[in-house]
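step=encode ok
step=design start
structure_in=
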């Protein structure tokens, strides 16, 4: 059964930083960057501030695209500068073995996906739910940070699924983009096969 979305704070949250930025190795938006699918009424970008931070891949919060960042559980605390710049409004924890994440003050929505990092774990029942949540937060002006234990396999796979569904990317191109922004990603082979199946579903549409 899917974990339910918990609304933690109902008051509006201002998000002046909901825009394009460069964190680590992520480049500014260009024709090579993921463009949100016009059919789903998501703008390709929003105006914002560019911040370049020099951090190791594993311990930094990695900006994937407007409205989405990826990290390890620890990075939320060790990379506070980036979290402060992003002003996340939603946090997704997809590590079954971790407790609920203490939330930054700006976060109003929290979603737990109780999955383990094994090739036999099935992420497919959660892919649409997580992608839709990221999308809904983005179009409302917010930003989602998604993490697992290391920000390498489970959470990376969900970022790839989001780019497939809402940016119209192939699995291969989505993987390459996420790896460019966070070179340490390494979804297990079971997740790769599930993402290829997920891509096929949206290619047929």
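sequence_out=
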């Amino acid at each position: 059964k899917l974990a339910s979305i918990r609304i933690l704070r109902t008051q509006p949250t201002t998000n002046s930083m909901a825009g394009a930025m460069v964190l680590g190795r992520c480049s500014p938006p260009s024709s090579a960057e993921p463009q949100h699918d016009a059919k789903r009424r998501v703008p390709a970008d929003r105006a914002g501030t560019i911040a370049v931070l020099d951090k190791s891949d594993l311990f930094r919060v990695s900006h994937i695209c407007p409205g989405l960042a990826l990290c390890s559980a620890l990075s939320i605390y060790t990379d506070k500068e980036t979290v402060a710049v992003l002003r996340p409004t939603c946090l997704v924890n997809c590590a079954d073995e971790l407790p609920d994440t203490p939330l930054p003050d700006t976060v109003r929505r929290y979603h737990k996906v109780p999955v383990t990092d094994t090739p036999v774990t099935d992420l497919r029942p959660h892919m649409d739910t997580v992608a839709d949540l990221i999308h809904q937060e983005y179009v409302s002006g917010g930003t989602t940070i998604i993490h697992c234990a290391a920000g390498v396999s489970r959470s990376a796979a969900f970022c790839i699924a989001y780019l497939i569904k809402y940016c119209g990317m192939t699995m291969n191109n989505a993987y390459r983009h996420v790896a460019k922004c966070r070179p340490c990603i390494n979804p297990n082979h079971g997740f790769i096969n599930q993402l290829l199946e997920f891509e096929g579903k949206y290619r047929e549409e």
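step=design ok
step=annotate ok -> Residues 124-139 form the longest helix (16 residues).
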